[in-house]
Every structure is written in structure tokens, then in C-alpha cells.
Predict the 3D structure of the following.
Amino acid sequence: MVDSIVLKGVFFGHCGVSEDEKERRQQIEVDLELFSDFRDACKSDALDQAIDYRLVYKKIKDCIENNSFNLLEALAGQIAGEVLALGKGKIEKVVVGAKKLAHRRGLDSVEVKICRSIT
């Protein structure tokens, strides 16, 4: 049995290859779903048996605000790797969606989804 937590948020960071994208912070939407077994947390109602999503949020925020990326793929991949490492084996899989407004005619936005697991 696998349970999940979903975090969605808007952050501001540098992502893109154009000079404008590198110079100004852009709005980046992140949808993250992490998968784990929550049975122990359900029984104990204890934070130490759960995934502390405050720490996951902080990891996402730090990753976006303290780095610069050329590609959304790289940004989402780094978030996925750092969140998996944060889980110390408790997190089985993570799916990260990273989206930003497109600056191309005809597109509203561009979104990348990355799926990573501990195996």
C-alpha cells in the first residue's frame, strides 16, 4: 500500500536560457507528490513517524530561490533528488511538476513532470 502527500506552491527563481530569463526572477509553479507508507503515522499520530512536509516545502523553496537553471527539467530533477534524500528511505517515489509562463506566442505555459524513485 502506498499513500501520498501533495504540495503545490508558487515560487520565484531563475530558469531559462535567454538573458531576460537569467536576469529576472520568474514565477515557477511546483506540484509535488511524494509516495510513502503512512500506516505507522496513522497509528501513532506522531510527526517522527511521518513525512514532515514543512521540511519538504523548505527544500523546494531553497532549491528554486538559491539556484539558477537553464532547464525546467534540471530544476524538477534537482527537487526530486533532494526530496528523496530528505526522506531517508521513507519516501518511495516523488513526482515533481514544474511550470512557468511561456513567452512564446500561442503557449500559455510550459510544464515538465519528473518521476523518481529510490529503486
